[in-house]
Design brief:
This protein has 368 residues and is of the alpha/beta class. The chain has 13 helices and 12 strands. Strands 7-8-9-10-11-12 form a 6-stranded parallel β-sheet. It has a two-stranded parallel sheet with strand order 1-6. Strands 2-5 form a two-stranded antiparallel ribbon.
Length: 368
């Protein structure tokens, strides 16, 4: 992280009811795109002011411009289509209501609609506050196109995974350049693929698809690094890794041990934002694998419920992590966004900001 505050948020915030109503009205044709954009922009301005007041160095648009943390971004590529039904994913105790997203041709970049959204966020920067753009990782698109429901259609256009990886990396490289040209200097990959491959359940799931875990890990690392390769030197690319976040539920569980030698050691990002809010994430010993050029943001505060963590217990966990990586390379954040999808997690806006204020209090006590 470029800032010295040692605290941050992942990116998404609970959507105000006014925004949800506006999107529903737009989808139903009751308001125009211009009217919808005006409402979004006013709400984003208000959100950014609250982030600045909370002392956050990086400001985001809260992902107010999208329904889903990942799918809306994928829809901005050539060769990708989507439909309302058929995209549900089973989470712990609940099916995530997503949209089916699949290939209709070769994948390539075009003028991505997120660029204009970023330009608006960039216009809200001020002294000490930098716009951060969050997008799903290249590996996330790779995984999306190879889920069982998409496998056959993907193979029509890409007979091998290597060919698919090449085109995903090329498309991402172009869009990364678009963000850079628009003034973006901090880009965050959100990546559930590493979280999906940990634990015993993951081994069984991939085995049922006829895939060897070692090969899958190598391909996830390859597609992410290929997309990053050749980026401008002054562009910071970070990655956030979690195990799923939908309506306060999760997708999978398991410690980082099985992936640390890949993503912690070899993914060419600047900072790792890691989910560490409960026992599902395992211990801190995998942090010993983090390459010396990376920093780590510990996601020790949960966004999945409203209960405020005990400050002293969190501080003790930070010092436990310090056994494996120096305190100066560490920071703290919530473990994920507050609303990875428009439905959001099960807490109020007031409780959301209480979590953020707690993160700041802990950081100031530990690092000041």
């Amino acid at each position: 992280m470029a800032n010295k505050t040692h605290f941050d948020v992942v990116g998404s915030f609970l959507r105000p009811e006014e925004l949800k109503k506006a999107r529903a009205d737009f989808d139903a044709g009751r308001i125009s795109n211009d009217e919808f954009t005006k409402i979004k922009h006013e709400l984003i301005k208000h959100l950014v002011e609250k982030q600045k007041s909370a002392g956050l160095h990086y400001i985001t648009d809260g992902e107010y411009n999208r329904k889903f943390w990942h799918l809306d971004f994928f829809w901005g590529f050539e060769g990708i289509a989507h439909k309302n039904d058929g995209g549900g994913v089973q989470f712990a105790g609940e099916v995530a209501d997503l949209e089916a997203t699949f290939l209709t041709g070769k994948l390539s970049a075009k003028a991505h609609p997120f660029i204009e959204d970023f330009k608006f966020l960039k216009s809200l920067e001020s002294d000490g506050f930098e716009a951060k753009q969050t997008i799903p990782a290249p590996a996330q698109l790779f995984q999306q196109l190879l889920v069982p429901a998409n496998y056959e259609s993907t193979r029509k256009y890409y007979p091998t995974n290597d060919e698919l990886i090449e085109d995903i990396a090329k498309a991402y490289t172009e869009v990364i350049k678009q963000f850079y040209d628009a003034g973006c200097r901090t880009l965050q990959f959100d990546d559930c693929t590493w979280g999906a491959i940990v634990g015993n359940a993951a081994a069984q799931r991939y085995k049922s698809l006829g895939l060897e875990l070692k090969e899958v890990k190598e391909q996830l690392l390859k597609v992410n690094n290929l997309a990053i390769n050749g980026k401008p030197k002054d562009l910071q690319i970070n990655t956030h890794i979690c195990r799923g976040n939908y309506h306060s539920t999760y997708f999978t569980s398991g410690p980082y041990d099985a992936v640390a030698n890949y993503v912690f050691a070899k993914e060419n990002v600047n900072t790792l934002y890691l989910e560490y809010d409960d026992e599902r994430s395992g211990g801190f010993s995998p942090l010993a694998s983090v390459s010396p050029d990376k920093k780590v943001v510990l996601g020790l505060i949960t966004t999945k419920n409203s209960e405020l963590e005990d400050k002293q217990s969190v501080i003790e966990r930070i010092h436990e992590a310090e056994k494996y990586i120096s305190l100066e390379r560490l920071s703290i954040s919530p473990q994920c966004g507050f609303a990875s999808c428009e439905i959001g997690n099960k807490l109020t806006e007031e409780e959301q900001w209480a979590k953020i204020h707690l993160v700041r209090e802990i950081a100031e006590e530990v690092w000041n």
